[in-house]
Amino acid sequence: MHRRLHGRGALFDVDPAGLAPRLVGLRPHQHRGHPFEHPGELPFVVLTGARGLGKSAVLAELRDAYKGHTPVALIDCAEPQFAGPPAERPAESWSPVAQALLVIAEQLAAPVTGAGRITFPRLMSGLVAVAASGWGDADSERIRREVERILLLNESGSWVSGLAGRWAGKVAAKVVAAATGTGPLVSGAIEATLESVAEGFTSRRHQKASVWYRTYPNAGGHAQRGLMLLAEHFRAGGTSREHAERYLVRALLADLTEAYAGVLPRMQRLGRPLVLIDDAQTAPGPGLVEAVLSDRAQGITDQVVFVAARRGEGRGELRSAVRRELPEVARRSGWTPDAAPSSRALLVALAPLSPDDTLHIVGAVCDDVPVPPQLPHATHRLTGGNPLGIALLAESAAQNRAGSLGELLTADVRLDEDHDASPAYQALLDRLVPAEHLDELTVLAAAHDHDSACALAAALLPDTFGPADVRALRTRLAEEGLPTVPGQFVGDPFVRTLLLLRLHLRDPDHASWRTAHETLIAHYPEPGQARYRLHHELALGNTESAVAELRDTFHTADIRTWLRTLRFVASAPYFHAHDADGRDFTGHGDRRAAVALGRTDAGQEPPEGADAVLHLRVRRLLHAVWQLGDPLVLPDPKVCDRLRFELEQLSNLRPAGNALLWRASRDWPAAALAGRPMADPGDPEDTDDGPDDRSGEA
Question: Where is this region: Disordered (predicted)?
């Protein structure tokens, strides 16, 4: 079993084997073989999902599980080294894909158990040709540095440790001579490289590699001509560069195939090489993925296990891919490709963690720290099983010894020694939403649709952020893998809670918070929009209208609709600052429990003409649901008991709706205590309103 990850057994299990050992052919953390699920062509695995679901953690665990046992490489496409060329290198001779191939090959070259280094003569020759196209005005020292790093890909062992340096000097000398003479620069570098390969090695394998580029299109059977064309296509950019990059990817895979060819290598090397690509939605990810899939679709086979991780579902780029949920690949992937290149991909959606996983993570992090027994379940309800959220909240609990989740989110947490402590909610937002849109999302998190988002943008965002930007941001969230939920601009309830908390704390006097909700109250003036208006009034602590609406419609509304309205209105956020009347202001304290338990009834005067008993009962019920549905508050057993009692009493007043109200009196308190959302009574699978029921759907 894997060592650190929870809820990922479908990938790492040994007996029965998960997806990784079935593809790699090795047991994780062991140099013991395992039968291949796909002995011929194998799928290109792509892990999908939103931020924080642990995709990077899975790739890191895969690297650690197989490093030293089989060749492994891991790159993160979001790293700065892939964002642009070094300062001294022209953009025409550099690309993210070429840089990624160099970094991948450097890692794959490392010796493993029972076998020495892998050399990459084909890739080396191609990368030198590409680099040479940018040496027009370079000094000899820069050329020597670039050439030496590339030539090290062809160093087969410590006994030739000085050979790469001698090659680099020879190639650099020829390039400098070509640059200062009358001969062409690129051809001089290519000629020197091919000569170096031929002179340095006499084995059949390396001789084959030195002439591999004879088959480059229009090379006419001449390796030097093929490399010249490769460099020209690369320098031309656009689709010509993409063609050259695909050939460089093919060179890497051909070198790996060569390393496993023959009887002795097959006896020495167990399993398959493993290439891991994180943030594959960012360059160089798409180029690498497309190149491998295209070649495999054309029958150019390889035996490399690729596992990429990307945000979102990749439906645009990988529309024909086979799609599976994580549990579905636990014993067999069921992958079968068709003619489309993208069908060679197997997309595996990472699932959120379970309540049991959350319990184990919180217990492990807070091993020596006493925490409330309900904290793990409440953490799971808040995060929806998001691994990053669970881990960071557990760390905040360990460092701050705070009880409520609201306190854990606002408390400072230090994640490592190299960074200063920061509020936990801010540390989470830094990792869960696009940093360049954090301010806009903080405001728009209170919106329900495009029109309400535009109203908020007009009130709180710069004039340059208009309706087109609102649509673009909604599209960006979908591309990031966040769920699209009717009735909420930000569909993920955990992310939305964090953004709303940031909005509340944006100003010392909560001015932005009040402006946002006042704007939305004015945006929903029609009677049919009452539930939205009441939701935002409640967010400001104004409860009178919500109580009156629920009281006056109790006898006439459809009970299921009435209960859904109650849940939606009571899903209004309630943060730490409310005055004695419950209104958003300054100070601390949660007064909802006191209202729900009837401790404030004596000071309440029901409106004239209203049923006083029903009025107070609905008021207590609203505050009970408001508190028990709050993802930042641990459930109060006393409030749960009161919720059960109030719903039972209401069920006696509506014979036609008696069954639903009575069922709710059982289901809702039990769900709150277990850290689950309150679903429609009698229909526990109905969660279309989202984990905290904030979709706004009636």
Answer: 672-698
Angle between helices 658-674 and 637-651 (to 10 degrees): 170
- Bond prior to 631 in cis (omega within 30° of 0): no
Give the per-residue pLDDT at 63: 97
Tens-digit pLDDT profile for residues 78-130: 999 999 999 889 999 999 999 999 999 999 999 998 888 898 989 998 998 89
Distance CA 156, CA 71 (A): 14
Amino acid (1-letter code) at residue 641: D
Q: What is the mean pLDDT of residues 163-188?
A: 63
180 contacts 154 by C-beta, under 8 angstroms? no
For 441-468, how does the pLDDT look when each residue is reduced to its tens digit (9 = 90+)? Answer: 999 999 999 999 999 999 999 999 999 9
pTM of the full structure: 0.90
Per-domain boundaries in the chain: 355-430, 433-523, 524-682
Name, in order, each residue with C-beta under 8 angstroms of 183's C-beta and a sequence gap of 6 or more: 177
pLDDT computed for residue 169 by the predictor: 65
CB contact at 8 A, 378 and 346: no
In the predicted model, what is the mean pLDDT of the chain? 88
Find the helix packing angle between 658-674 and 612-628, rounded to 10°: 30
Helix extents (H) in 211-354: 223-236, 238-259, 263-268, 285-297
Cis check: omega of the bond before 16, within 30 degrees of 0: yes
The helix/strand count (H/E) of the chain reads as 30, 8
